[in-house]
Structure prediction request, 555 residues.
Amino acid sequence: MKLHLFRSKIESKIPQKFTFPFLYEPHPLAVEAAEQLKSYLDSFDNWFFDLNLGPENYQHPLGKMFGVLVVKNKDGNLGHLWAYSGVITGNQIDSEFVPLVFNMFTEDSLYAKENSKLDRLNKEIKALEKDANFLKAKKQFIGLEKESKLLLYNQRKKHSNLKANRKAERLKALETLNDQDYQKLIDQHQMQGMHAKFLLKEYKIYLNEKILPLENFISKQESEIKKLKQQRKELSNQLQEWIFEQYSFLNANGERKNAMELFQNIPPYLPPSGTGDCAAPKLLQYAYLHGLKPLAMAEFWYGESLRSQIRKHGHFYPSCRSKCEPLLEHMLQGLDVDDNPMLENPAEGKELHLIYEDEQIMAVNKPEEFLSVKGKTIEDSVETRMKKRFPEATGPLIVHRLDMSTSGVLVLTKSLKVHKKLQDQFEKRTVKKRYVALLDGNVKEDNGFINLALRVDLDNRPFQMVDPELGKSARTRYEVIERKDGKTRVHFYPITGRTHQLRVHAAHPLGLNCPIIGDDLYGHKKDRLYLHAEQIEFIHPVTLKPVLLKVPAPF
Prediction:
């Protein structure tokens, strides 16, 4: 592994502080380093397989997250390191990229030995599950069980009919038989009923005896499979804990902590799979081990987009939170790091204009970069400001929300009773909303419908991802207003109201494949997100008259 030198003379100033990894604009030096890495990747005929980043039968999109770290060596010379996220099991000799923090794939490692035990357990489990006699017994058991239930049902029905016949016979006998003969009939019927119950009980025993041998065989086999699976789980957990104990991370102060220590206070108290193999911790670890001072970093996507997450070729992205946040909080100690911009109040100094008010409801024109409701660290929001402005208002005020970066019409109520009535219209989707957006690219169709189910990316909040199986229904209608200079102005009509719905539907390849301009999550950051809630129409919850509120887009 070598330190990559900048090809051209350094004209950009050296950054005073290191990059805050979870929300940043890449420093010019990091951008230049990234361009050199992209040029290197461009030089391959098939970069993914030429760099041994996946097997020949790799079935996923050929895309990868790469990272660059601008560093200064002991002589004061600048250079940069390269890394990619993920692992490969092959040899990394003479690689242009920094190595793994911990390589578990060496031939004599505990992982290789214990993994062979897991392989053996997997084979034993599979053999038992696929055993011909076991599968045959299960099939026979299911068939016999169905047959027995049907036979018992018919037998019970037969006895029920006989019981009804005896009852009818007794009713009729009351008119013709004397008391002595009637009593004899009752005694006879009681004997018949007892006999029928005995026969039904014996019939159940007979059917169970046919099923019991199969049931015992299946139970014994399933018990053995369960036992082996428990052994596999315990061994896997032990191996996973051992692996994360070997992932030992340095920081700028020379202190070491392993992954288990860094996640010990974070539920579920075990690092997620793949922790430590992302680009950022690899880069920092290598720099600390070789006496290089980290100055700036950036991560970018190269290649095809994923099917679920939105990843655009060449775009810069923040470090993932679920795997990297605990690691980087430790690894950046000792460096002077940029302030966390998410702790700053973006609404500071911005005015909130009331566009409608009556005795029950009100509406504001929410500026961009302004919270609808208070966040974890920022109190200032539309709701908190309106509560101060209308202290007599009771119950919840906010009825619906707009993303912090989205501007436009936002409706509030002054009482809990009115809030429930108006919120009911949102839940029943009778409220009509129209957004204006400026997209980066030319949308082909003049109008259309997008149906892509969404859920939160658990590894990287607040990003949303497309998931047709686990995602919630998300539907949007759109129409093109104007195409100009490689940009498209559209009207969005959201039918559902999922988090980031319009942003994902615009950017995703299965949607419009044209991110909203200024979208710092799914596109490129600009002066603002060019998305505006222009119009909303609903029935007044008290007067029952239509209400139409509109604020033209400021762009």
User: Anything to note?
Assistant: Residues 179-246 form the longest helix (68 residues). The chain has three domains: 28-102+247-342, 128-230, 344-550. The mean pLDDT is 91. DSSP finds eleven helices and 17 strands in the chain.
